[in-house]
Specification:
394 residues; Purple Acid Phosphatase, chain A, domain 2; 22% strand; 9 helices; alpha/beta; 6-stranded mixed β-sheet
């Protein structure tokens, strides 16, 4: 019986890719996939994150890219059900087979990739992550710089046999990457800069997981002034971490999350970037935004004019109001897997119900899901018995 040496096979396929036309290089930049998220403990929402990842892979095939960049938080935590992990592994294997292993998936670890939520503990000191696991299977290229090494050894070339390294070259593009650099990445950026070769004639990408101060309100980030020195050696700073999409001065790119990981994310512009690098006398970069087919959401506000004295009346009133708001006349596919079936954010305002009629959010969610085409409900109770404030609520 003979067996194929998988690392050698991957290396041969990688070398074949390098033989292609070097004048044009295409890649997709995505981040914050949050695979394994079980949002609201809802199985349909858990599947939405996997569907978004599958769509990114599908776009890569459609646009015939050379590689995919994932800027961290590919997984939402170290906790994951075996069935979900098996599904993700199978998706990646199918992708490698469909593409004849010619489209590399290049990733780094984000803060969520090394976090165990139930205990609030990060396990980076133990070196554990699901990204390391799928990299060990040869399904992705996981980059990680050695920030404690001398400048020439910070970014060692990726070795397919041991599946380790801090940089990899695809055609005339060199991708440098490191894991999440804790809460103050600016302390390490000068060190990373020293490890980047300046005048090698290639297009340079640095893959990092941190946010930029001021891009998200009340969310800490790195001061932009502290990273501008990287522009001397980096043509494209590929970020992940913030779930909001932004571009700064045509060299800093953050695609945002691929699916809404919390209620705020639904309002953000998110997606991925399709990037084409053309080499003429100099490098020309074209960046297009890709909008993903995400789960819909909608906000509804219901105002209580009177003090309800039974839960039955409350629920009946809410369902009546929602049915008037929803267009139920259309012949829709009402299966929860249909992304057009929304997550409903419901705000209840006005007169507070009788004290013995306390609303049970879980119970009300079930009633709404049974009567309306919604995949889940988040309920916000903003009641007041102060009649002077009613006009404000309206």
């Amino acid at each position: 019986m003979t067996s194929v040496n998988l690392p050698d096979l991957q290396l041969r396929n990688y070398e074949k890719t390098q033989e292609n036309d070097n004048k044009i290089t295409k890649f997709i930049h995505a981040s914050d996939i949050h695979l394994g998220s079980h949002q609201y403990r809802n199985e349909n929402r858990a599947n939405d994150f996997i569907f978004a990842f599958e769509e990114i892979l599908s776009k890569a095939i459609t646009h015939q890219v050379d590689f995919i960049l994932l800027g961290g938080d590919v997984f939402t935590s170290l906790e994951m059900l075996p069935g979900k992990l098996t599904k993700i592994v199978n998706i990646l294997r199918d992708f490698k087979n469909k593409t004849d292993e010619r489209i590399l998936i290049i990733a780094i670890e984000g803060n969520h990739d090394i976090r165990k939520f139930s205990r609030g503990v990060r396990f980076n000191h133990r070196g554990q992550s699901w990204l390391k696991f799928i990299a060990s299977l040869g399904l992705i290229v996981l980059l990680d710089a050695d920030i404690n090494a001398s400048p020439e050894d910070i970014f060692k070339p990726y070795d397919f046999r041991v599946r380790k390294g801090g940089k990899i070259q695809v055609k005339n593009v060199v991708i440098y990457g490191s894991r999440y650099l804790k809460e103050k990445p600016e302390d390490y950026l000068l060190t990373l800069k020293e490890g980047i070769i300046k005048d090698d004639g290639n297009f340079h990408i640095l893959l990092q997981h941190f946010g930029i101060e001021g891009q998200m309100e009340h969310v800490p980030g790195v001061n932009y002034v502290r990273i501008k020195h990287l522009k001397e050696r980096i043509n494209y700073l590929a970020l992940g971490h913030y779930h909001l999409q932004f571009i700064l001065e045509d060299w800093v790119y953050n695609p945002g999350s691929s699916e809404a990981a919390c209620s705020t994310d639904f309002s953000f512009k998110r997606g991925a970037f399709l990037v084409t690098i053309t080499k003429e006398d100099k490098y020309v970069k074209e960046v297009k935004k890709i909008k993903l087919s995400n789960r819909a959401s909608r906000w509804e506000t219901i105002y209580f004019k009177t003090e309800f004295r039974t839960k039955g009346k409350i629920y009946e009133y809410i369902i009546h109001k929602l049915k008037r708001s929803f267009d139920l006349g259309k012949n829709l596919n009402l299966a929860p897997s249909n992304i057009h079936i929304p997550v409903l954010f419901l705000v209840l305002k006005g007169k507070k119900p009788f004290y013995r009629c306390k609303i049970d959010p879980k119970e009300l969610t079930q009633v709404i899901c049974e009567n309306l085409p919604v995949v889940d409900v988040r309920i916000y109770q903003k009641f007041s018995n102060d009649l002077t404030t009613i006009d404000t609520f309206v």
